[in-house]
Specification:
The chain is α+β, with helices and mostly antiparallel strands. Helix content is 18%, strand content 26%.
Amino acid sequence: MWQLHNRIARVKAATADTFTLENLDATLFDADVEDMTFARKVTFDHSLATATTVSTSGGEPDDIDTTTIHANLRTTMPGLPSAASYTFDSIWDPANAALLAFRAAADAQDMRAFQFQFGSSGRSMVFAGYPWTNLLPSGSAEKDAWGKPFWRKGSPNTPFQRLLSKGSNSMLKLTPDPQFKVSVNITVPGQDAPAKIVVTYKYMPRSQAEAWTRTLEGKSDADALADIVLGWEGVDAPYSRESLEQLLDAYPAAGLELLVAFRKNLLESRQKN
């Protein structure tokens, strides 16, 4: 049952040789019984009471192109999701047992089980992931010092990469976020000042971006942008293929401006000599 790799579930209705997983329907899982020899009981040894904020990223699936040669409309289906990651601020305390456990697991590059408890309702979520923190503080005068622990959720299709969280003393991610936002100026006929919108683009590694560029010949602006635009802000209609085509029709220069903004932010250096 590879579908259970690195997943956490509560066992119920256990017998001598069978058991049921709470809130998890495994009837369609592959019946590979040998994998179950790797199951183990999970205990939560430390509680972090000094966390102040939490943010998440990742978990979005790749788009797999399913367009056939006879189709006149491009279609996609969701592929493998990227690994989810959680980052949070914590009051810095080098003697905090939970932070020290984070550090020890990070040094060992070892997976750990995590539980989020939501208020006093008793609701919680659990998952397995790889923790990381460098226990380096940051802050400013007359304010508490803060650290940034981080963990990355593992999956059978996502090899572990040792990453640091964003912020001061951070290292470069080997796996960038699957999307990025760019402020784009759109030329409005008859107006000196352009309209500013914020566009969410799909991230592509260089090899994928170069392959995508080679497919642009013969494509309309709408077809090309549909491959890379995931959403926008500052437009009076939600993003969709139909609203994209409407924008391109209403503002003739917008197609080139959106494509240039994507290429510039993805491939061109913004470092000054």
